[in-house]
Predict the 3D structure of the following.
Amino acid sequence: MTVTARRLPLAVAALLALVLVGCDAVAGPTPPAVAQACTPLDLAGPDGRPVDISGAWSGNDGGVYYIKQIDSCVWWSGLSDFEGQVPGQEWVMTFRGTLGSDGVLHGEFVDVKGTNPGSGTMTIRIRAEEREGVVVTELHREASTGHTIGVTFWQRRTIEPTEPAEPTEPTEVPTPADTPLPSESPAGDETPPITLPPG
């Protein structure tokens, strides 16, 4: 084996290391996990329980908003929800914001529907108050910049409870053991034997 042949694996390893370093330089540092960017939030409602706005909300612009809150981080997907149309037919909006301990949400939105492009910022205040023994949470837009948007107010969507259906008696279906085969005759129905003429 020559000296050059012995050095070939070292040269390949060195080249690979340079390529990996170059990739890191182009790609940049790995972004932190989302959970690390969301800080614990000290925000409670009038009942002392932590405020959590995760869930489905209705906007006064005829849209439905699916909101997710993790600590101080808030995301949503908003879709137009007009009668006679499929959700999102007119517009689809995404939002990413940060909620403070003062109950104010600051964030950025973008309409991802090509027929209604636009982006901007929103400032939203969370109002939680007790009404007739029930804590009611509402979202109120206080300011916005950029693309004109119609929504200024959100309420939680509620689903009316439905009455449970009355139980019905199961229908009896005959089992194969109860069904006579075509070659069998029911009891009491004797079939006369077939007599063949003499050959």
In short: Confidence is low (pLDDT under 50) at residues 2-31. The radius of gyration is 35 Å.
